[in-house]
Amino acid sequence: MRVNMSMAIVSMTEPGAATTYNWTMQIQSVILSSFFWGYVVLQVPGGQLANRVGGKMLLAAALGVNSLVVLIIPVCAQYGGWKLLCVCRAVQGLTQGLVFPSVHEILSKWVPVEEQSRLGPFTYAGTHLGTALQLATAGYVADIWGWPMIFQSVGVLGILWTLLYLYLGSSSPQSSTYISAEERNYIQSSLGCNEKCEKHRTPWKSILTSKPFIALVVVHCGQNWGFWTLLAEMPSYMKLVLGIDIKSNGILSALPYLMLFTLSFPFSIVTEYILKRQWLSLSTCRKLSNSIGMYGAAAALVALCCVPPSNTSAAVALLVAAVGVNAGHMTGFLLVHIDMAPEHAGTMMGITNCVSNIVSIIAPLVAGAIISDETDPAQWHKVFYLASAVYVATNSVFVVLGSSLRQHWEAEQTIFSDEVTEKAVKLI
Questions:
Q1: Looking only at Cα atoms, what is the longest distance across the chain?
Q2: What is the value of pTM for the model shown?
Q3: Partner of 332 for a Cys bridge, out of 213, 218, 289, 422, CB 3.0 to 4.6 A?
Q4: Full residue range of the structural domain in which residue 388 is found
């Protein structure tokens, strides 16, 4: 739902299509960035809500609303033009702002400490598999049934998923009826939590003035700049510069994200192995993984700028490498939120995702401002050089200031457990 516009907009602006729109590159950049207008709004409130009420209902509500909105996008585009389309995308972004804080909150309650390096990346790898499948199939769907089906098919799948998750999902092991007492006890013991887990107020000042947390914000911004520059612009680059047709475009655009999905598994397995053998500290291991992901992506983009567009195979291979090696961030900074303060992981993820997705709004707009002639490789190279520089600079900040050490402020300002609170109320 988040990425289908990147492929659909290629078909929507295709001359000679049954329903086509004459949108300039600048308008297309506005449409692609409009998702993030709403996306940044509920990130921090989403983290707080997930911490207080659990992630299940927020996650289900976000995906349910998105499914309904994506179904009506073709009608809105037809009768309201690109402006109403931007409104739809902003609404999708608004509700999807609840997704990552909710998922991080759920992971912090469900994943034992010993398995975080494996199950965290495994969960987030699903986002990249979904991206790859959407990019791979969108061209064929548009060719056979028309571009509206790109949105309608995803909307139906989203509704089915929401209904299934409402039936099977749980915010925590304590609220699940589908696991054994033995599994529940194992998870709670690993996380140092019993049936009546204490909750804590959010230590806002301590979080926002923490150098390791500031480093998380910076590196998350850099990751989003590079990732969303490539995700939003790659289909257009392949079509207009490399001359790849829409159906091949979809398959080749999907390859980098299939590689990202695939590489997430060896990254997680190797990371877990290194930590079990105690070859590196947790902080060093996270920084190494993240550096491979972001420095590696920067190097691939610089190399891409040195390859002539006529060498399609090399250009595609370097795009695949730039996105694929970025799998390192899933065993890198993404898990540091949980390492530093599992009690506040959802809130912290909400803050970093909020700030970093302001960058995601800017990145496609900057690309649109740089590229006045979308067939000119030199202008595209400026976009890639800029993304490389951002990757290097922000990861360097993370390497110097980042840390996976449990923070002293994690359990500040304890709120009494539910049992104690209930007794206090009765006394009053």
A1: 79
A2: 0.78
A3: 289
A4: 4-427
